[in-house]
Predict the 3D structure of the following.
Amino acid sequence: MKPRRFMAPSAFVWLLLGGAYFFIPLLATLLFSLKSIQTGKCCTLSAYGWVIHNGDFWHTIKLSFLLALETIVISLVLFVPTIYLVHLKVPRLRPVIAFLALIPFVVPPIVMVVGLLDFYRGSPTWFYDQPWGFLVAAYVILAFPYMFFSLDAGFRAIDVHTLTEASQSLGASWLTTLFKVILPNIRVAALAGSFLALAIVMGEFTIANLAQFHTFPIFLQYVNETQAYRPAALTLLSFGITWAAMLGLLFVGRGRGARPTLLAGGR
Amino acid sequence: MASEALRPDLASGRRRLSLAWVGTLPFFAYTLLFLFLPAGEVMVGAFKGVHRGWTLSNIRLLFHEPYIHAYRTSIEVSLVTALIGGAVGLAIAYAAIREGTPRWIRSILTTFSGVAANFGGIPLAFAFIATLGTIGVVTQILKNQLHIDLYAHGFTLFGKTGVEIVYIYFQLPLMILVIAPAIDGLKREWREAASNLGASPYQFWRYVGLPVLMPSILGAVILLFGNAFAAYATAYGLTSGVVPLVPLVIGAYYTGNVLSNPHFAQALALGMFVVLAVMMLIYIPLQRRAARWAR
Amino acid sequence: MAYLELQGLHRHFGDVKALDGVDVQLEQGEFLSLLGPSGCGKTTALRLVAGFDRPDAGSIVVDGKDVTNTSPSKRDMGMVFQAYSLFPNMTATQNVEFGLRVRGGHRADRHKRVGELLELIGLGHAGDRYPHQLSGGMQQRVALARALAIEPRVLLLDEPLSALDAKVRLQLREEIRRIQLELGITTLYVTHDQEEALSISDHVAVMYSGRIEQMGSPAEMYSAPATPFVAEFIGTMNRLEATVVDGGSGAVEHRGVTLTVNAARDRQRGDRVLVLVRPETVELSPANGDGGPNTLVGEVITQTFLGPVTRLKIVGGAADLIADVPTAKAATLPVGTRVTATLPAQGARLLELTDEPLPEIPEEPGPAGR
């Protein structure tokens, strides 16, 4: 192994290949988005105009965004106290929960939705037929592994025992301790998990499709099937949303050590 | 525990501990309701007959055409994309981390991989339609500038091969993200010691580098396999359900009228679960072995 | 004719000059230590010899042949790293065998040699253990055996004991020297521990800021340091700034007190000099009055127990120095006692004082536990 001061040529080739594979589809999509429907040639912004003026677009993207927010809130309310409690009082449960976080690998969305649709068939309409009920319930489970790894890392980075005991010795109640002492210190981890959850919900197609809810990815597929060239504008927009979520994640995770790098987008 | 001193009002340690367990109840109740019970429903329902009673007919049907073909195709696609994504991802990750490559390339690679790994499903399918579809940009360039007509030669994006090409788009970056820490763990001292003892780069990789990386590589490939096997949206967006993949067959029951037996859909799902569970059973000990050598 | 030569080595990293013209010669079978604080360039020099880095200028010659442009795998040198260099996926035996395996040869011969080496380092019974099952000291022994297995022309060691416990360090350094003498192998050893270097080397080269300050036998380095840095780095030394008063009698003036230093004879009146006095050569006795010739008077302000010897710090008036006395005697001079410190006229060394500030030795971080 000779000491190397410059990049190995083979390294350069591999990186170039990787870069090409990444960018070419995006460039092609961009070109497509600029084609006019009539002539099939460049260059017009009419596809983007169509998107912006499309009512369904705004309706579905708002819906998906609100569903994401609801998922994030429920996830935080459910997971933060649990993980706090586990770190503080019941560390033996931690490997159990970590193991549970692996379950979505074995029970992917396609399998989960089959079970959910059947199990809750008889449940009340306000849950089964509403995205705010059925979908979000499923999305919380989907977001769980990412939330867990983020929050767990956050809690591990702070000394939960010392902070709690210090706060209590100064007279604070459990609730005050949780909100004023613990939460601010895991803010970064919670934000990281939230960005991942956002990406998940904004991109989730499988469950929404089989359960027949009209979220943003469903709208995307509809446009895919019925329009020429216009889907390209939406595709780039969707890519932009993913980018924004990742940048948010990076921004929030600056200077931190372990960053959850898992997958959030619907596949 | 020191926190005992702060709650002298609670009489016994056992009572306090059970309070903490109670606090975790909402979480476990939630996973029970929305993960375990539905999953259980699938596993149990697979064995139910259309008119009450238990049966193995659903399971038996899985092994017949066209369903066994769907499993074979799904497994094949997952294997191919896992292996190619794994090998190429490893090469790219190593290229970015090895000596001689500027540090900033690695940061950029990590960022783009994070984005690419999450860019899947419907938008990705369309992006490739725009690239390699019948009037895709690359297809056109090849036809008009280089006089290579892909579709005339039998290529189609909307078949098995096309799905594989598209899947690799998110398999590659996933591999990069997962294997990079393992490559980091290859201590510089090993490379130098091997060289000092007379080993060529090939000998280093053969005797030290690859053996040490192997548990991580295998674990990553398994992850990639599971990832591709469970994928639904991408294949759906590409082919609207035409390619025989198990998730698409399952979906067909709910979005079309191809199947009429709900329990059969559950049997299909059970089959998926079994394949993935086997993968997980191989994955866990591999991870432990990889962690041991990383010290 | 030197066996291993470092000729005019230069190496810089950005603005930092890691090596600023380093020349070293080793005879065959010689054990030379590169000694110095962190950042002095000793590891850089070693890595250049091993071939893991290329010099900006200068060359490395082994047995008459220039190897500067040879790849490290072809230099036929054995290297022992500071830590973590054993291949984790191989047992101790397999690790030691690695260099031989790479070179081919019969399996039976290889196994025999590996067995011999494991016996040599005292780990004949532990051959089947993996590195994570071995203690730090055992790992370094295996690393040594592995380097020796290929019968290298030169043995290189990069602070091999820094990451180990103190007791293990003492044991292991004796063993390294014993094995080196038995095999007669030319050895270049890098360390920041001066006691280590002095105790096992044939020669020591003290480095500072990328240059060699002084090279010589351990005894020379200790008793006759050539520069203020070496004087400060090797052992503990009292450094007294003084001006020559009378070259004929060797009288110098230090803070208003006249001292006689034989080494100051032949000096010009007015020369500024640094008088170096080893703490163990300072005689102490309870003070009565002003003390005699060649004395400084002061008060004991601290006592530091060092085992057989206790180190006393004496401060007062013109005095600010350290004296090492037998512990029993130190008990008779508790903190607060006024003492007379007598400096030996003969034993003190003299160095020229320039306008450059005296180098301060930075606090060396403790044993590098990883």
User: Anything to note?
Assistant: Chain A touches chain C at residues 1-3, 5 (CB under 8 Å). The two ends of chain A are 41 Å apart (CA to CA). Chain A has a mean pLDDT of 85. Residues 126 and 133 of chain A are 7 Å apart (CA to CA).
